[in-house]
Amino acid sequence: MNLDKTARLALAGILACLAAPLAATAAAPAPVVVSITGFAFGPAQLTVRPGTQVTWINHDQVPHTVTSRQGKLLDSPALDTDDRYSHTFTEAGDFEYYCTVHPFMTGVVHVRK
């Protein structure tokens, strides 16, 4: 009888150890993709949690950039067709960006805890 209880406790401990990495993985924010298509960022506005990686992919046949309105947080090179640029947002705030080649192209990433 005592052996059954010990075996059940040991099994519960093993299962808890195996489940812990799964819980940590589930808590990580999923990556987000912004498409650059038709001279526009889509979505132009998005809200993410700190720790989220955002990737911009240029689907247009002309180059575009992803550049911060203020500061240097976002500062991609010219992205040719199918090029990608990624940034992981670590701090809360509102991060406006635009394309330096086509300044009418704008977007904003809202980072909220």
Q: Report the uncertain regions.
A: none
Q: What is the total domain count?
A: 1
Shape: elongated
Q: How many E-type strands?
A: 8
Q: Name the structural class.
A: alpha/beta
Largest sheet: 4 strands, mixed
Question: In the CATH scheme, what's the topology name?
Answer: Immunoglobulin-like
Which value, in Å, is the CA radius of gyration?
22 Å
Helical amount: 10-25%
Overview of this protein structure:
With 113 residues, the protein is α/β, with parallel strands linked by helices. It has a single domain, classed as Cupredoxins -  blue copper proteins (Immunoglobulin-like), CATH 2.60.40.420. Helix content is 23%, strand content 34%. It has one helix at 2-27, and strands spanning 32-36, 41-42, 45-48, 52-58, 67-68, 84-89, 93-98, 106-111.
Strand-helix topology:
Elements: H1 2-27, E1 32-36, E2 41-42, E3 45-48, E4 52-58, E5 67-68, E6 84-89, E7 93-98, E8 106-111
Parallel strand pairs: 1-4, 3-8
Antiparallel strand pairs: 1-2, 4-6, 5-7, 7-8
Which features characterize this protein?
single chain; 113 residues; alpha/beta; Immunoglobulin-like; four-stranded mixed beta sheet; 23% helix; elongated
